[in-house]
């Protein structure tokens, strides 16, 4: 026997393990424990995408776990509670603080209500936690009530000798005026155990009112990953100090009435922009730039011309910066998108695809026709103020650091491949190559390179070439030609603002979308990423599924799923629904379609849930266990290490602690 190796592991490594497991008994117990965990059913994965700042709908769907909690209530109470009682119980679990206030205000006998409700919540909690190990449930228990909840979950009412014990616990909770706190703890535990892992497949940010609230909830979640969407990348780039991303983010907020989030949530002052617009565009007809959505907050000014001037001013700055970055980075191959340099300023027209178009607005006092992408001194000063505000917003920086730490461009997880946009492809379906520092990369290698550059934008030293290149690349990922996150040839910001001809608004998709509904193509991508399970599939967001036109979320004979179904209210007229979510349990993959959400207040008061329905349920050939998952692979490797340590103890290579 090689005294320096035990089953391929160095004695030094095993000696370090021995500090944690100092005896044969300790090692054996841990092996038994881990092997038992490997034979439990895998946890439930919940997939969401394209939230677009719609915080109320997002919060509700995370509260009801896409209907999974209501399913548990139906399972245990279908024959013993009426429909209204089941709805009331579900609403309590979703919004316990609101419902407790409502119940107290109703004048109900609280002692009686507490007793009945606690019994019901414990029953639902048992059903929700039943497939997890007792150890895992204990780790999820709120510290203040850990012992009590553990006892109630494992002390069954039908055991007559424990009936008095069970009832005494309930009575003590009520008598000590701890019922409210205990109900809150039970509701949170139910919601936590209903979903073991949450996947967000891109676009937390965009038009919705409060992406900040969404990120706060994600940061409080026990286990979540995020695949960056193009709108996330835009805000990440802005927080990293990319001036073009800052200008674009501000422009979008002005255009879609997100100033509340910009100013109140992130503390970014828009007054300098308003003053700039008033000074340089006051004699300017800016009606073409009237925002699509005007401020609804009662405290916001309703001067429509001011908002139009602000929108125009920041849009011009954005277009100038885009022209600069296109010239600075010829490797992006986007010369045709330097739109300000293509304008014929003698007659204020632009030629696109051989067709001359007259601009809807011809008055641009800050553009020098001889050097159209150069910022004026005042524009540069404004931009520096805005960029500094993004870089110094503590809450924004905290949120963006979270997106970096919990996110990635793509993720291989438990046999599935998750990414927001696409794997860029050529017209023949082959992977598109990109020049990356003189080396041609494609497919997974290119996505890895893109993620590395995205991280340099935020983490490379300030002033370094890596940071500057990363910042520019964040703009490319946001809207660059065939970016893996954007997935189109170009974005028509200029055309939509300044041209009348809607045929110029087209944004051709990358060839990935030409082939991605083909099963062989999807399988080729899965295999390229090393995913070969019989159930493996690609999970995408980004392109809304037009359900009202008969389109479904499952593609490529089940090898690809699109779960962008219109979370954002602006897209619901196109999709006909309010989004898809997906569940991946130990037994099946389940896709759920959701109807539009009202408000939290109406949901609480009227006990209205989002109307959801299963659109696809795909049963797995056999139940998946923890041992079949990525976590299981780690546990099995740990078991092998422990077995090597056990052998080392038994052969005397390592001595047990006394």
Describe the structure.
- By secondary structure, the protein is α/β, with parallel strands linked by helices.
- Strand 16 and strand 17 form a beta hairpin.
- The protein has a 7-stranded mixed β-sheet with strand order 8-5-4-3-16-17-18. Strands 9-10-13-15-14 form a 5-stranded mixed β-sheet, with helices on one face.
- The two termini are 25 Å apart.
- The chain is built from 28 helices and 18 strands.
- The radius of gyration is 28 Å and the shape is globular.
Summarize this structure briefly.
This protein is of the alpha/beta class and 658 residues long. 50% of the residues lie in helices and 10% in strands. The strands form 5 sheets. Strands 8-5-4-3-16-17-18 form a 7-stranded mixed beta sheet.
Write the layout of secondary structure elements.
Elements: E1 5-6, E2 9-10, H1 11-20, H2 24-38, E3 45-48, H3 55-64, H4 68-77, H5 83-94, H6 96-105, H7 110-129, H8 134-140, H9 146-154, H10 160-175, H11 179-194, E4 197-200, H12 211-220, E5 224-227, H13 230-240, H14 243-255, H15 259-265, H16 271-280, H17 304-328, H18 339-342, E6 349-352, E7 355-358, H19 377-391, H20 394-406, E8 407-408, E9 410-413, E10 416-419, E11 434-436, E12 439-441, H21 443-459, H22 465-479, H23 493-498, H24 512-515, H25 519-528, E13 538-540, E14 554-555, E15 560-562, H26 572-575, E16 580-584, E17 588-594, H27 600-606, E18 612-619, H28 630-650
Parallel strand pairs: 3-4, 4-5, 5-8, 10-13, 13-15
Antiparallel strand pairs: 1-2, 3-16, 6-7, 9-10, 11-12, 14-15, 16-17, 17-18
């Amino acid at each position: 026997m090689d005294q320096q190796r035990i089953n391929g592991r160095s004695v030094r490594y095993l000696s370090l393990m021995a500090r944690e497991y100092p005896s044969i008994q300790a090692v054996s117990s841990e092996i038994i424990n881990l092997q038992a965990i490997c034979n439990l059913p895998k946890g439930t994965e919940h997939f969401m995408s394209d939230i677009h700042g719609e915080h109320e709908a997002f919060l509700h769907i995370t509260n009801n776990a896409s209907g999974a909690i209501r399913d548990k209530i139906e399972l245990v109470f279908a024959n013993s509670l009426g429909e209204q009682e089941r709805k009331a119980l579900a609403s309590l679990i979703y919004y316990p603080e609101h419902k407790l206030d409502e119940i107290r205000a109703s004048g109900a006998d609280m002692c009686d209500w507490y007793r009945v409700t606690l019994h019901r919540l414990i029953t639902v909690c048992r059903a929700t936690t039943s497939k997890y190990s007792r150890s895992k449930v204990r780790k999820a228990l709120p510290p203040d009530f850990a012992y009590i909840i553990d006892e109630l979950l494992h002390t069954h009412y039908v055991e007559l000798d424990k009936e008095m014990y069970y009832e005494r616990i309930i009575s003590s909770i009520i008598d000590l005026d701890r019922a409210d706190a205990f109900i809150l703890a039970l509701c949170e535990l139910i919601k936590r155990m209903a979903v073991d892992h949450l996947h967000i497949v891109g676009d937390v940010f965009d038009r919705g009112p409060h992406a900040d609230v969404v990120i706060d909830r994600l940061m409080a979640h026990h286990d979540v990953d995020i695949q960056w969407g193009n709108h996330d990348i835009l805000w990440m780039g802005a927080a990293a100090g990319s001036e073009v991303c800052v200008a674009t983010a501000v422009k979008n907020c002005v255009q879609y009435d997100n100033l509340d989030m910009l100013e109140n949530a992130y503390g970014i002052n828009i007054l300098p922009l308003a003053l700039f617009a008033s000074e340089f565009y006051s004699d300017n007809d800016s009606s073409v730039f009237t925002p699509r959505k005007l401020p609804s907050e009662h405290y916001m000014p309703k001067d429509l011309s001011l908002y139009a001037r602000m929108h125009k001013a920041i849009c011009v700055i954005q277009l100038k910066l885009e022209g600069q970055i296109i010239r600075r980075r010829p490797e992006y191959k986007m010369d045709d998108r330097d739109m300000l340099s293509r304008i014929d300023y003698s007659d204020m027209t632009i030629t696109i695809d051989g067709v001359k178009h007259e601009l809807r607005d011809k008055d641009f006092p800050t553009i020098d026709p001889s050097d159209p992408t150069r910022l004026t001194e005042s524009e540069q000063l404004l931009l520096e103020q805005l960029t500094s505000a993004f870089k110094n917003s503590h809450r924004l920086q905290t949120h963006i650091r979270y997106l970096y730490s919990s996110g990635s461009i793509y993720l291989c997880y438990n046999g599935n491949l998750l990414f927001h946009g696409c794997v860029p492809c050529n017209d023949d379906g082959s992977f598109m190559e990109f020049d990356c520092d003189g080396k041609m990369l494609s497919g997974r290698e290119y996505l890895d390179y893109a993620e590395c550059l995205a991280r340099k934008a935020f983490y490379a030293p300030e002033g370094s070439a890596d940071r500057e290149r990363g910042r520019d690349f964040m703009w490319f990922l946001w809207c660059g030609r065939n970016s893996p996150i954007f997935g189109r040839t170009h974005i028509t910001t200029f055309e939509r603002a300044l041209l009348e001809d809607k045929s110029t608004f087209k944004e051709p998709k990358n060839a990935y979308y030409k082939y991605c509904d083909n099963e062989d193509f999807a399988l080729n991508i899965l295999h390229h990423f090393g995913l070969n399970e019989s159930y493996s599939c690609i999970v995408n967001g980004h392109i809304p599924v037009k359900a009202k036109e008969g389109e479904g979320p499952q593609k490529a004979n089940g090898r690809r799923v699109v779960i962008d179904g219109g979370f954002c209210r602006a897209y619901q007229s196109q999709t006909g629904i309010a989004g898809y979510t997906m569940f991946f349990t130990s037994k099946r993959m389940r896709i759920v379609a959701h109807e539009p959400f009202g408000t939290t207040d109406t949901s609480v008061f009227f006990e209205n849930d989002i109307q959801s329905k299963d659109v696809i349920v795909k049963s797995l050939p056999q139940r998946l266990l923890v041992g079949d998952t990525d976590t299981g692979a780690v546990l099995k490797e740990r078991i092998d290490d422990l077995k090597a340590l056990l052998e080392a103890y038994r052969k005397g290579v390592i001595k047990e602690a006394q």
